[in-house]
Amino acid sequence: MIQIETVTLGPLETNAYLLSDPAAKRAVVIDPGMNPKALLRRIADLEVEAILLTHAHFDHIGGVDEVRRLKGCPVYLHDAEADWLTDAKKNGSARWPELGGPIATEPAEYALDEGQTLTLLGQTIRVFHTPGHSPGSVSFLMGEHLFSGDVLFRLGVGRTDLYGGSENALLDSIQDKLFALDDEVKVYPGHGPRTTIGYERDNNPYV
User: Fold this and answer.
1) Residue pLDDT, tens place only, 45-101
2) Residue 104's closest CA among 117, 94, 119?
3) Which of 61, 64, 101, 127 has its CA 20 to 30 A from that of 11?
4) Given this model, what pLDDT does residue 48 score?
5) Residue 71 is part of a domain; what is its CATH number?
6) Structural domain for 66, as ranges
7) Where are the beta strands (DSSP E) in the chain?
8) 3 state DSSP class of 20
9) Total number of domains constituting the chain
10) Distance (Å, rounded) from C-alpha 172 to C-alpha 207?
């Protein structure tokens, strides 16, 4: 049985997600954000199979290298943002120095792409390329659990005024890919509370 925990990190209260198999003491981390001490404590006794990044904005990658060094695990990121991990201007950390200064990490080990499937924790995780908030944004679907990054929020959507953003692409991603999923699919966004696809399809004022 896979457990899903939310660990909210950093000045922008970014949701990192810990997917774990307690019996096997194995885990996957999605979006290890800034100031990751709470997350590091939680994974101390777990073997981390992978770090999955929904995108490479600074508030979602601030803890990447600390988790990677501690656990020796690979990082997965869409190729459209392959150089963002090493570029503080592209990942946005240079724009808001008051939030912690420039952030740069080592490059990702593996590239993600539309339609890809990953097998982690004995589960199949489907990759949807959902650009708009950023060109390499992806969403991860594991069973009926969707990790949407900053694409879709409860009664909101991701901002599109940052480097590489596109409002049209964002709305297309949500309408054509995410809203094609079943109503019951639970949405775990990059910020804020959980929601469901059905609730957002019926109530989200931005889509």
Assistant:
1) 999 999 999 999 999 999 999 999 999 999 999 999 999 999 999 999 999 989 988
2) 94
3) 127
4) 98
5) 3.60.15.10
6) 3-203
7) 3-9, 14-21, 26-30, 47-52, 75-78, 110-112, 117-120, 123-129, 138-142, 145-149, 152-153, 156-157, 186-189, 195-196
8) strand
9) 1
10) 9
